[in-house]
Amino acid sequence: MGAVKSRTITSADVDADEQLQHPHPHAHHHSMRNGHQHNGSISSGTLQKQDLRYDIGCSSQYQHVRQPSLRSRSQQPMPTTDELDRRFAKVLASMDLPPDKAKLLRNYDDEKKWDMICDQEMVQAKDPPSHYLSKLRTYLDPKASRSHRKRKMVGESTSTQVLRDLEISLRTNHIEWVKEFLDDTNQGLDALVDYLSFRLQMMRHEQRLQGVLCASEERLNLTNGGDGGEMVMGNSSSVSPGGGGGLLSHGNSAGHGLANGTLDSRQQHTMSYGFLRPTIADALDSPSLKRRSRHIAKLNMGAATDDIHVSIMCLRAIMNNKYGFNMVIQHREAINCIALSLIHKSLRTKALVLELLAAICLVKGGHEIILGSFDNFKDVCQEKRRFQTLMEYFMNFEAFNIDFMVACMQFMNIVVHSVEDMNYRVHLQYEFTALGLDKYLERIRLTESEELKVQISAYLDNVFDVAALMEDSETKTSALERVQELEDQLEREIDRNSEFLYKYAELESENLTLKTEREQLAMIRQKQEEDLTVMQRMLQHNEQELKKRDTLLHTKNMELQTLTRSLPRSASSGDGSLANGGLMAGSTSGAASLTLPPPPPPMPASPTASLAAPPPPPPPAPPAPPPPPMMPGFSPLGSPSGSLTSTAPSPPHAPPMLSSFQPPPPPVAGFMPAPDGAMTIKRKVPTKYKLPTLNWIALKPNQVRGTIFNELDDEKIFKQIDFNEFEERFKIGIGGALRNGSSGTEVDGSLQSSKRFKRPDNVSLLEHTRLRNIAISRRKLGMPIDDVIAAIHSLDLKKLSLENVELLQKMVPTDAEVKSYKEYIIERKDQQLLTEEDKFMLQLSRVERISSKLAIMNYMGNFVDSVHLISPQVQSIAGASNSLKQSRKFKAVLEIVLAFGNYLNSNKRGPAYGFKLQSLDTLIDTKSTDKRSSLLHYIVATIRAKFPELLNFESELYGTDKAASVALENVVADVQELEKGMDLVRKEAELRVKGAQTHILRDFLNNSEDKLKKIKSDLRHAQEAFKECVEYFGDSSRNADAAAFFALIVRFTRAFKQHDQENEQRLRLEKAAALAASKKESDQVLMRNKVNQKKQQQIHCLHDFANQQQKQLVQS
């Protein structure tokens, strides 16, 4: 709301208004108040809605301050600080100031506080409220003018002076005086409003007479050509439309002025022209007007305009405190009278009225009150449109009054722009626009008054241009639609760009994979070439060694032959065979000892090396038989000294020793010094047992170069550590020791080692648990990823079952997983290294809107089941509600329960007109005196005895059992979920313009939308039926729960049946007990009879025996 300013009317304005210079006995009271009213004020500035206190009558500068004399100050010494604070708090309480002003006064020093206390204590109300009210009621009494006592009570003071005194008392006296004036005993507000209404009727009557007179004078002027028109019109030309004043507004008695002076002259003037005005004469000579004129003259009443103005000031003084303000707001007639005071001729009075109305309009509920008062103004003044008279004063003024213009503009600002409802604000704005306000504001917009400029700017700044708003709304709608289209287009472009990026990344990855494979093949080729070179060098070295050994062997053989020939012939002939055998054996043994060592193991996966390796040597020759013992003195060959004589005999079976002639064995191939740049081939370590495998990632030989592993030698560790205990502790299986010589095991081990060395480990970007769940779900899915993606794109529930759809919804990659896969692709890593589950997830992450599509498929698959599940629940609630509401028997049962309840409670709590159904549960808790039965037992027994037709009342309650198990809130939520799913299907159908997928979606929409509409309609009817049912049984439908409500009915029905059965069971037991008791009693009677009979028989027997004895005695 724009800035709304108001002016503050000081008390000096009232003295100057209408030149009312009346002495007042309470003048010193008026100067005392120092501007402090009972409550806050409407000060210069912006009016706010929360301001409930208005200082309408005092100056914001506190100009009227009475300074006590030095003598009075000296006579009243200042008390102590505590006493000063206590008395000052009492003064503030009596002033009833707003918190902000009270806080300002508390900050005064002690001297100022004491001055205020002295001034306040000097104020004494001279007259009680009844003094003024009795005079006002005397003026209102039509018989008062004929009563000498009442005329004497009024005195010589005019009604205007009485009102003036009342206004000063209301403004200057304590708040208690004002409350006493307004209390129920005095009813001062009613008296003041009644007097104001009376004077307004007088003023309006005078205005109507003035209007008739002016119209007649105008007709005379037009008839006579305007001669003497000015003389006849007199001062009437200065009366504004609807303005006050008139013939009856001058002097103490308007009737005297009209009858004695003005009327006679005008009648003579009129008669001179030969025209008569019977209507005016009749109106002026009417008995009511004469009686009213005599009443005014005898009671010395003032002018109506003056009384109205001062009455408005009195109302302003009452509204200066919260108590009075609330009373004025609640008094509709008071507001109507204030609004009707706008017809007053004084612009200052109009401005005062508008300020009061603006102040009321700002409080809560005041806006409606003000508009109602102007509706009343329209009816009373017979306006064609509301605010018409106000706008006439505002636009067609005779004399420019800035205060009135500002007040009027401020009032219109508040009336229009203090409404929160935009549509209502536009309606109010149009009312003033239709009266020409907008055009007029454009004319006076450049006024010189700053205050008026502020109000005009505030109004124009807050005006709603509906056409511009509509244009903006349409532009906004089209812009939003365009934005949505662009967002959809951008989303599609982003999806296509993502696809291109994925494809590009795939191609880059494949290219990188090919480059890596090519580099690996080149490295393998280089390694194989290096191995081939090493093997060739080794082969050459072995060939040279063989040649050297052959040469050495040939030399030794020649030496042996020479030595043989040099032996004596006898030895040669005698032992020739032996010598030859020994030499042959020695030769054979030497040959065997000079054979090549076994070749080194072949290089793993090196076909070239295996081809270049030398063939294995032939098996060694069988050993010769042991030679015969040598002759004494003959030293064997191969002795270290090489001499032929020796004194030590040799063992008889010692084999020939040719160790001195054997060359050193060639180095083992694994330990042969390799050429520079070649890796040493490690030997396989044989084990006795099968050991577990260490799952490490081994380095390739070409990856070891330049690392620390190139400097390590683990062979020496094998010699330092005893691995037997290690094998015993870590062996696996019970198959025993491994065969070290098995060629098949060696080959398999080498191949497995080679494969494990070369195979790269799979990489997974998923968390372990997630990876395991995906693997399980993927096995359950049992479909290739391409078929899955195709089914998702086509929304085909035939290819992809509903179970698989729900399974895929759990497998949809999360945002973090999609991001990790994107980063993996962008970094051009090998996709083949990913696990099958990661590859599956990667393919799923590339499907556009996969979550939305799966949700649509799930919705389409479950729609029929959902409808079939929800529809019976809705029907059960509707049926149960209607049957419960229409059941006559249940109604009769409740009536019986109400009767019993009132019978129990009427003495203590009084009779009840009804009860809530929750009370049915308490029927079981009310027990009888013997605690053996409850109130419900008795009610059921009563119904069975008196109203047996009501025993089966549950037969009229259809579906309550089912309805008790239905939560209406859950049903509403399910239907809302169905609506959301249908919206999702519609949106997907709009995105897919053509294609088979669109056909599937359209068919689904055509078949399902009507079902959804029907179930929505059924749910709405069920809700209405349940609401009516709950309210019908006296409960609130706001927080009612269908399940709890019908469960209450079901519990009561079951309890009723159970208690009926218990009553019947009790009756059966009682009958059985009574029958047993009666039978027992009859048996007892029979027993007593039998006993008595036996006694009688015994007695008879005794009598007979006695008689016989007597007879025998007599005979004897």
TrEMBL record:
Keyword Coiled coil (UniProt): yes
Domain GBD/FH3: 76-550
Annotated stretches, region: Disordered: 22-44, 62-82, 563-672
Stored SMART domains: Drf_FH3, Drf_GBD, FH2
Biased composition (Polar residues): 62-79, 563-575
Compositional bias ranges of the Low complexity kind: 632-648
Coiled coil feature spans: 469-545, 968-1025
Chain ranges of the FH2 domain: 681-1082
Record key words, sorted: Coiled coil
UniProt-listed Pfam families: Drf_FH3, Drf_GBD, FH2
SUPFAM superfamilies according to UniProt: ARM repeat, Formin homology 2 domain (FH2 domain)
Pro residues bias: start-end ranges: 596-605, 613-631
Single GO cellular component term: cytosol
Superkingdom of the source species: Eukaryota
Biological process per Gene Ontology, one example term: regulation of cell shape
GO terms for MF: actin filament binding; small GTPase binding
The name this protein goes by in its record: Uncharacterized protein, isoform B
Organism of origin: Drosophila erecta
Lineage: Eukaryota, Metazoa, Ecdysozoa, Arthropoda, Hexapoda
Gene this protein is translated from: Dere\GG15671
